[in-house]
Specification:
The protein is of the alpha/beta class. The protein contains eleven helices and six strands. 59% of the residues lie in helices and 11% in strands. Strand 3, helix 9 and strand 4 form a beta-alpha-beta unit.
Length: 307
């Protein structure tokens, strides 16, 4: 490994605490926080409103049940989109606008459930509006708190990072490694594998043999260092080289990625999409569709139901 790359990899080293939260544990903690905070907001606002209006705390169990239902409706879109990962919080994919939209969706669905079950009259409309405002404030504040706590925990080494190995040209590896080290992206570069230069531009027998040797060493390093993700850094047009690297790592339980920083740049929402029979890279989220616009516009009707 070139000395410059060695320094980059060493710069990503973190203290080794006795206890570190893994990816699954983080998801569970984030989910538990959101469910408990929404339920608490429901109980607290219900009790406060009932005390102010009637002199007693009211049906706390009913408030808790409604809060749990609202929490389930709120977290469902995030779960379906798999947006409880460390990366999602750090990259800002759970933006305030998305949180606001999903909270409104959840309340609209809650209003529909109440209408269909004929239970809208069981709860004070004033409390429901109070719960909407306080609950929204709590989930918004919770997003910021989780992100801040996550970054502080990562600096202290209390959150396990994804162990990444970079494979490709030395200059591309250096650029990607520095980018990962400079950002709190939830990943740590544990190893690099520089592919022979002539093997990246030639398909001759000598080039193939050199590539096989380099890949064998890379696989051994990835296994020894327990790499979880392999990022291939090469020209996208070299499909043959990409396939050979992917096949070489097929025996390991790792996720394979194709580096695209130079292609997509700042587009953190980029996703692979199907457009007809073609495969494309979507750089941004699509605009709201007719159904989403309808839900957004009719949200006011759902709120008006409680007024």
């Amino acid at each position: 490994m070139a000395s410059g790359l060695e320094s980059v990899v060493r710069s990503g080293a973190l203290p080794r605490p006795r206890f570190a939260i893994g990816a699954f544990a983080f998801r569970m903690l984030a989910l538990a926080y959101e469910v408990s905070s929404i339920t608490l907001a429901s109980v607290a606002t219900g009790a406060a409103y009932h005390v102010a209006a009637y002199g007693d705390a009211g049906p706390l169990g009913a408030y808790a049940g409604l809060g749990l239902l609202e929490a389930a409706l709120y977290i469902m879109p995030f779960l379906l989109r798999d947006e409880y990962r460390v990366q999602d919080f750090l990259d800002g994919r759970r933006s305030p606008s998305r949180v606001f939209l999903f909270w409104n969706y959840a309340f609209l669905y809650l209003a529909m459930i109440g209408f269909l079950s004929k239970t809208t009259d069981d709860f004070s409309r004033g409390w429901v509006l109070l719960f909407y405002v306080v609950g929204l404030a709590m989930v918004m504040a919770g997003e910021s708190m989780i992100r801040l706590t996550l970054r502080q925990s990562m600096r202290r080494g209390l959150v396990s990072m994804r162990r990444v190995m970079l494979v490709g040209a030395e200059d591309e590896i250096g650029r990607m490694a520095r980018e990962m080290a400079d950002r709190q992206s939830g990943v740590r570069v544990v190893a690099v594998a520089v592919l022979p230069e002539h093997s990246r531009h030639s398909d001759g027998a000598e080039a193939r043999e050199a590539l096989d040797v380099a890949l064998a060493a890379a696989v051994a390093d990835a296994r020894a260092l327990k790499a979880e993700d392999i990022v291939i850094l090469t020209d996208w047009s070299r499909s043959d080289l990409i396939a050979r690297v992917t096949d070489a790592f097929a025996t390991l339980p790792v996720a394979m990625h194709l580096g695209a920083t130079g292609v997509i740049g700042r587009f953190s929402e980029a996703r692979v999409a199907r457009i007809g029979a073609a495969t494309a890279l979507s750089l941004t989220e699509p605009p709201l569709g007719p159904a989403q616009r309808l839900v957004k516009r009719t949200f006011g009707v759902g709120v008006a139901e409680f007024q």
